[in-house]
Structure formats: structure tokens, C-alpha cells
Amino acid sequence: MRIKAAKKVIVGLMCFSILSIHSYLGAGESSMKFNEPTKAMEFEQEKTYVAVIHTSKGDVSCELNYKQAPLSVTNFIQLAQGGFYNGLTFHRVVPNFVVQGGDPEGTGRGGPGYTVPAEIKLTHQQGALAWARLSDNMNPQKRSSGSQFYIALEKIPYLDGEYTVFGQTISGMDVVKKVEQGDVIKSIDIVIK
């Protein structure tokens, strides 16, 4: 009788532990494994896809350009909806140039474990949302980082033809200009209108 009671207690504790771990991971931590998109998701052609980046300084909304950068937008949406960016920081801020985030290490070297094919078509207007990448000598195909993105603080024409731009800030540029190194990306929502 005591053995049966002890087994029930042990099983109960195991279930409690599993539920506790699951609840902990659900609170801003992503347990999902992300993979390089090999094909674009199916976009509703008459719809607009907007990423709302919730930061510790306020919200920034960027329209995603799935027509010019379908794999990049697919990747960004996959990461955002999977909670990858939740709690990460802007690890690089260069005045009059860019604010950059999306590195789980916070060093400029981290990512989800893959890169994304280059889709270099759009220009770097102020507010451009683009992927960071490794330099040409290490990355002659100009493949984009799997997760690190930047927002241009100014028009940057000398980056045109070198990096994949996949979106454009449509509101919150004042917030982007206030971002400092270490500020937090609370979460990113994808709004389809």
C-alpha cells in the first residue's frame, strides 16, 4: 500500500515538474527549433504584412515586402511568431547609421544556426529593415544572417546592392532614433491587414 502511494506521489511530482518547465519556457522563452526556409510561405496577395516591434522604448511598425524578398519575410515571420526575438537586445547602435538586434548572444555573432539566401533588390531608405550578414570575403554569396536585422537611421545608398532589405518602417521612426545599445526587443507581432 505504501509503495502504491509513493508511486503516485512520484508520478505527481514528475507531472508537476514537466508542467513547470513548460510554463517557464512559455514565458518569453522559445523552445522551438527554427530552420532555414527553403520556400516562401503563401502570402495573401491583396494583404499587407506589418511587423510591430515592441521595444523597451516603444513600438516600431515595419511593412514587410514579401514581393521583393519572400524568403526573408518568411524567415522573419517564422522567427517573430515563434518567439525567437522575445527578450533579445539591440546589441549594436551606430548614430546616423543603424540600430541592430536579433542576436541571441548579444555579441553580433549569434543566430538561429542558418543563413538565408540573398534577395538584394530594395534600397536603403531611412527606416529600411534589412538583414545583417558576414563580409564578402567570408560570404561571397552575400547570404543574410538568419536572425540579425537592422533599421537604417538615415538613407544609406552605399549599402544598396550589398544587403537584403525586406521591409520599411511606416511608424515609430522616432522610437528607432531613441534606441540605445542594450535596449530590449520585448516581442514582435505580425499584423496582416
Structure description:
The protein is of the alpha+beta class and 193 residues long. It has 2 domains: 1-31; 49-192, Cyclophilin-like (Cyclophilin). It is built from 3 helices and 10 strands; from the N terminus they run αββαβββββββαβ. The strands form 2 sheets. It has an 8-stranded antiparallel beta barrel with strand order 1-2-9-6-8-4-3-10. The chain is globular. The chain starts with a helix and ends with a strand. Residues 3-30 have low confidence and may be disordered.
For the record, give the distance between the C-alpha atoms at the N and C termini, rounded to a whole number.
Answer: 62 Å
The H-and-E topology, N to C, reads as HEEHEEEEEEEHE
The CATH top-level class label of the largest domain: Mainly Beta
How would you name the CATH homologous superfamily of the largest domain? Answer: Cyclophilin-like
Low-confidence stretches: 3-30
Key features of this structure:
alpha+beta, globular, 3 helices, 2 domains, 10 strands, Cyclophilin, 193 residues, 8-stranded antiparallel barrel, disordered N terminus, two-stranded antiparallel sheet, single chain, 22% helix
List the helices and strands and how they pair.
Layout: H1 2-26, E1 49-55, E2 58-64, H2 70-81, E3 88-94, E4 98-101, E5 115-116, E6 128-131, E7 144-145, E8 149-152, E9 165-171, H3 173-178, E10 184-192
Antiparallel strand pairs: 1-2, 1-10, 2-9, 3-4, 3-10, 4-8, 5-7, 6-8, 6-9
